[in-house]
Amino acid sequence: MAGRFQPRAPRPTRTTVRGGDTRVPVARPSGPLTGRTRTWTPTAPLDLGLVVGPLRRGPADPTFRVTNGAVWRATRTPQGPATLRITARSTAVEAEAWGQGAEWLLDRLPGLLGDADDPAAFAPRHRLVADVRRRRPGLRLLRTGLVMESLIPSILEQKVTTDEAYRAWRILVRTYGEQAPGPDGMPDLYVMPEPQQWRMIPSWEWHRAGVDNKRAQTILRAVRVAPRLEEATAMDPEQARKRLELVPGIGPWTSAETVQRSHGAPDEVTVGDLHLPGIIGYALAGERDADDARMLELLEPYRGQRHRAARYILLTGRTPPRRTPKMPKTDMGKL
């Protein structure tokens, strides 16, 4: 790994209490605030936004920012909290990381950016897909090597609108997470709560964030066995999904959404989604009312690469005309 220490002016340590007796102090993580750097040269075209975009949970995600062409990501690694800044240059990627997990993140930078992915294994079967693949050659499937950071927001996204899920993630992370380590002047980022902290969130705070009891209880069951779930990163995607689905409340939709990010799984297509079958049915067959079975039938020629095929299809922008209202927002007062 090419890397060297470069000192940065430390940000002032601060502890804040976010109003109310049920909120906990938010302290910046301990650890060195010097940035460790790495430069890595991809072996194939790389579109940084396309690759890391699936990690962003809405435009105000407190763990993810894009500023002046640089991607900032705050996360919780096995070594502790860390912040990663990635900038794509003409032929190379420059990265800098801070915090206890800085070295862990930089060691895995190529995997995060799809170095282990094999786009050449994909063979387009439809003209539409072939065209978008030609126009967007930099799509690669990321691999974070982390389960919980993708599992928890995926649980929050179960059966609600994306706006509701993003709001819940934003509130819970900013309230119960930690200020991300890094240099003075960096974006205001937060590291998601550790498992024990998720377990300490009172029921009324889940309600305040718009999270119903079913999703809250699923998250609580998951964080109780977080070490066992993180072990799934060493498994193949199919076995990893089986491990995740042992937790009540985690089904095929949630496990697929998780391993797509944690494992860079090219074949783990999402089933049970409200919109995806209709989009794929319309793009590939002109059908507006495709269900999961029909979606899988249409994607069968891409077996082994069905998730990648779905990513390309979503990039076409072809969606069926809307005939029904959007999913209604959840009224927490009626739960």
TrEMBL record:
InterPro entries: Alkylbase_DNA_Glycosylase/TA, DNA_glycosylase, HhH-GPD_domain. Residues 1-37 are annotated as: Disordered. Its EC number is 3.2.2.21. Keywords: DNA damage, DNA repair. Gene3D superfamilies: Hypothetical protein, domain 2. The keyword DNA damage applies. Residues 12-26 have a biased composition (Low complexity). It catalyses: Hydrolysis of alkylated DNA, releasing 3-methyladenine, 3-methylguanine, 7-methylguanine and 7-methyladenine. CDD domains: ENDO3c. SUPFAM superfamilies: DNA-glycosylase. PANTHER family: DNA GLYCOSYLASE, DNA-3-METHYLADENINE GLYCOSYLASE. This is DNA-3-methyladenine glycosylase II. It comes from Streptomyces polyasparticus.
